[in-house]
Design a protein that fits this description.
The structure holds 2 protein chains of 2 kinds. By secondary structure, chain A is mostly helical. Chain A has helices at 2-6, 20-50, 54-62, 64-97, 103-115, 118-129, 136-141, 150-161, 163-176, 179-186, 191-220, 223-229, 239-248, 252-285. Chain A is globular and about 65 Å long. The model of chain A is unreliable at 1-5 and 287-293 (pLDDT under 50). Chain B is α+β, with helices and mostly antiparallel strands. In chain B, the strands form 4 sheets. A 6-stranded mixed sheet of chain B has the order 6-7-8-3-9-10, with helices on both faces. A 5-stranded antiparallel sheet of chain B has the order 13-17-14-15-16. In chain B, α2 (91-100) packs parallel to α4 (139-152) and α3 packs across α4 (139-152). The chains are: A mainly alpha, B alpha+beta. Chain A binds chain B through residues 179-180, 182-190, 193, 197-198, 201-202, 285-293, and chain B through 49-51, 70-72, 74-78, 80-88, 97-98, 101-102, 133-135, 138-140, 142, 146, 149-150, 152-153, 166-168, 171.
């Protein structure tokens, strides 16, 4: 005992522990990097927006064109998020719980929107549905307008946000396996009962996490929407597009005021995301893994 | 309810998981499917439970073909190796699940559900934990809840897939004794899968030994242990020494290419030669509890022969490492080499 008690902790050199000064320098570098590239711009947005006073800020938001942009953004998200929610759950369910041919192809396809630049996705839609596009003449005949109209914006938003929910759920559902579903079925539950009572409660936090990310992207998407929207003020402008127009007109206060809405959305998303992440972690700790007593 | 399995086949791609299985399980019996991993025992259990579908063959419950009935309609209780408890529900809700998902017409009212769930939780001695979540329980407790949950719907048949496989030895022993008692009380036809011979021998009324998708032998624990029907069963259940006819013609006698199977406790040692004895050198002596295990090497070819003696026996004729001893079998069993079916199954020698 006497021998060991003489060993002070500071004398023990732990291989994985850097000297304190190194740790501090590394932390300082990381923090200043974050401040420079993330914190400062965020601050600038609000500074510019509120720099000329609350009056001008609120006026910019009360502008009818801004109102219609906000409305359109909300509509696009309100359609794209539920659509991808249903698709995401269905795809993850199929991939995680069943074996079938072409499974890997499906997983790859789900990732496609992540791999393709949003501008290109927008172009694809113009190429398909535009006036000169493959399906353009047929659509015109039937008096359906997709490109430079609201439906086109909704479609590309769905395309771009397609992977978020499915990608979130697939690993989660694969890790959970299908034991619980099999147990439910053998106890007499129908497919729907099994889904609502067993599967859904098990994935709810992961699902919410996916929805939050999906929603943030749906509201913030610029590139793809920009291509198909046509920038018609008060008609086909979403919030990000409206910001661009205002900025190009040198209307900085209005541009930053509207942009501050998106920044606010980002902050709320981050907050919600960390709350959900905390819950996911808590839940995953309780997954029984056949441990012994 | 009895289970009849007729000419059952199951393939996964090119792999044959089950090859022409025929089996009869009597009503109220507790049967063990025993075999090494990958022998198809779990697949067979899952097909009986309707969680997997066979490629061909029939399953009859009480003489009725149940091919058209899915897992939901088979009234089978299934217990999983990793418990598969619903992690977001309390124990009470776990056990109540089967009662709550019944069609409206058959569903009991809330008071009745409560009464039955508490009755079942009492049966598995966990009533005091009704409001806990599965994550807060030990493995043994979880498996008991899983059993209560399966029993809640009053299944005609209980299927257990390696029910104690994820538990440590002590809890495992307790639980299997408890399962045996429970079965004696309830008398529900039960089939359980295990790779642990001790578990099968101790708990089951009958044992079905499986290997490579086929049934090797069906019989009572005593039959299977004392009278193995094939070399595989001999080697899988209990320890055994093998003697090839080429090198030990004396024991295998004049039967050509045959292998003699001798249990370690069926070998005698003595210091005097016997007409049919082999000479061996003692290599190692390990005394474990009431038995003493000797590892000997035969002369001149050095094949290892394991011998088990009772402590009294060993003390009567003590030997030490390096001693030369004469060994001879009390009971041997011959199987023809490289053929599955015993050609000489009648050739049992007692000397």
């Amino acid at each position: 005992m006497r021998n060991t008690s003489r060993l002070q902790p500071s004398h023990i050199k732990i291989a994985t522990c850097e000297p304190r000064i190194v740790a501090r320098i590394l932390i300082a570098i990381a923090l200043s990097y974050l401040a420079l590239f993330l914190g400062l711009p965020l601050f600038a947005v609000f500074y510019e927006a509120l720099g000329k006073g609350w009056e001008l800020y609120l006026e910019a938001l009360r502008d009818p064109d801004a109102g219609s942009a906000i409305e359109l953004t909300l509509i696009a998200a309100a359609i794209a998020v539920p659509a991808n929610l249903i698709f995401g759950v269905a795809a993850a369910w199929a991939i995680a719980k069943f074996e079938f041919r072409g499974k890997n192809l499906l997983i790859t396809l789900i990732d496609l929107p992540f791999a393709v630049s949003p501008v290109v996705s927008g172009m694809i839609y113009v190429l398909l549905f535009g006036a000169q596009g493959w399906l353009g003449p047929w659509l015109q005949e039937h008096d359906i307008k997709l490109i430079f109209a609201v439906p086109g914006i909704v479609l590309v938003t769905i395309f771009v946000t397609f992977p978020f929910i499915a990608r979130e759920l697939i690993p989660l559902m694969q890790a959970q396996g299908k034991d619980e579903e099999e147990a439910a079925v053998s106890l007499g539950a129908s497919g729907w009962q099994t889904f609502w009572r067993i599967t859904l409660p098990n994935i709810k936090w992961g699902l919410l996490y996916g929805v939050i990310l999906c929603n943030a992207r749906a509201m913030g998407e610029f590139g793809a929407v920009s291509v198909v929207s046509g920038h018609i003020r008060g008609m086909t402008n979403t919030v990000p597009l409206h910001v661009e127009i205002l900025y190009n007109e040198y209307n900085f206060v209005a541009a930053f005021s509207v942009a501050s809405l998106l920044a606010l959305l980002a902050l709320i998303t981050l907050l919600a995301k960390s709350i959900v992440e905390y819950r996911v972690r808590k839940d995953s700790q309780t997954i029984p893994h056949g441990e012994t007593e | 309810m009895s289970i009849t399995i007729q000419n059952l086949n199951k393939q996964f791609g090119n792999f044959t998981a089950l090859n022409n299985i025929n089996l009869e399980v009597e009503s109220g019996e507790l049967v063990a499917l025993l075999g090494p991993s990958g022998c198809g025992k779990t697949t067979l259990l899952r097909i009986i439970g309707g969680l997997e579908v066979q490629n061909s063959g029939n399953i009859l419950f009480h003489g009725q073909n149940i091919a058209h009935r899915n897992a939901r309609e088979r009234s089978v209780g299934f217990v999983f190796q990793h418990y598969a408890l619903f992690r977001h529900m309390t124990l009470f809700e776990n056990v109540a699940f089967g009662l709550r998902v019944k069609p409206k017409k058959e569903r009991h009212n809330e008071t009745e559900i409560k009464r039955r769930v508490h009755e079942l939780l009492q049966l598995v001695q966990l009533d005091w934990l009704a409001d806990r979540y599965p994550a807060q329980l030990s493995g043994g407790q979880r498996q008991r809840v899983a059993l209560a949950r399966a029993l809640a719907v009053e299944p005609q048949i209980l299927l257990l897939d390696e029910p104690f496989g994820a538990l440590d030895t002590k809890v495992r022993k307790e639980l299997r004794r408890w399962l045996r008692r429970l079965h004696d009380e309830l008398h529900v036809t039960s089939v359980f899968v295990t790779h642990d011979q001790e578990e099968a021998l101790e708990v089951a009324d009958r044992i079905v030994v499986m290997n490579k998708g086929e049934i090797e032998q069906v019989g009572s624990p005593d039959e299977v242990y004392a009278n193995p029907g094939s070399p595989f069963v001999y080697e899988f259940i209990g320890n055994v020494n093998l003697f090839h006819s080429r090198t030990h013609a004396l024991w295998t006698q004049q039967h050509g290419d045959a292998i003699a199977y001798v249990r370690p406790h069926d070998i005698e040692i003595s210091s005097d030669p016997h007409p049919s004895s082999l000479t061996a050198i003692v290599k190692q002596i390990r005394a474990i509890g009431p038995t003493v295990r000797l590892e000997t090497a035969t002369l001149p070819d050095g094949e290892i022969v394991e011998i088990e003696l009772s402590r009294e026996r060993f003390n009567a004729t003590p030997v030490s490492v390096g001693d030369k001893v004469f060994i001879h079998p009390r009971h041997i069993r011959l199987f023809e080499e490289k053929k599955k079916n015993p050609e000489f199954s009648a050739n049992e020698h007692h000397s």
